[in-house]
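Subject: sequence -> structure tokens, single chain

Hey, anyone have a minute? Need the predicted structure for the following. Not urgent.
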Amino acid sequence: LESITSGELYIDGELMNDVEPQHRDIAMVFQSYALYPHMTVAENMSFSLRLKKLPKDEIERRVQEAAEILDITPYLQRKPKDLSGGQRQRVAIGRAIVRKPKVFLMDEPLSNLDAKLRNQMRAEIISLRKRIDTTFIYVTHDQTEAMTLGDRIVIMKDGVVQQIGTPQRIFEKPINTFVAGFIGTPQMNFFKGRLVKDGEKYSVQVDGCTYELTDEQQSVLKADGIGPCDLTVGVRPEHVSLAGADDSNAVTATVDVSEMLGSTIHVHAKTDSKEDIVLAIPTMGLDDPQALFCSGAKVSFSLMPGLIHLFDTQTGKNLIYKS
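Reply:
Had a minute. Here:
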């Protein structure tokens, strides 16, 4: 769709910079389905194969196979206007499958669907990818899609790659504040903090509380020769634990609103130093979580030292995890 401005593009080891689009052996699924309205489902799916002048029986076989995989066999003789959004998206994916390409390119293919259908289609794409065992490059702004669909995630900002890794790696070890804030629902909490050093031991101070760092954190900071400094402390909502009101090493906050999600409740609060915090608290064992965390209620919490992240205040880079 766009001319390459610089660099080299290889697909399956073959340089593709000057190869015509129809010879690159890739298939694309668009956000807007891009189906031909005057053609039936079968005709839409077989269009590229007919252009290649494949034998009629081969075309029919491939269309039937793809239709069975996507559960759209009953709709093969219908026009796109007679289909739901999810069915149209299946047809668009089927049109790509019949080509048996080396690479599937998917440009936010689920963004036009409602939430329930999006979840269903996401599961179907995971199953499809396992069945056809072909590379998918999937563009999305939905980090849930990225986490659930991806074997490898590439996170970009302003056209620049920030981090590449498995979903688990990126979730647990984000290399900067952008990645940390992008991956995770609710997003990571960020506080102003200070790194202090007592002899050879590092600890971090947040809102008047002091948390001693783990051996791994200690060794990385020591190896890098990092001295006492102001920094940004990051902690995920699920890595914040409730503390007793008499706990001297707990941060106190005032609840703004809470969101009841069944097994957890997301508590949005503001600390005494006016910093926003979100806590993801399991509801099991709590009598009435919504009453407990009603607007204006006081809550005390502490950070789990082994699960906090330390970021440079200027560059946003993670001081512990760098790749």
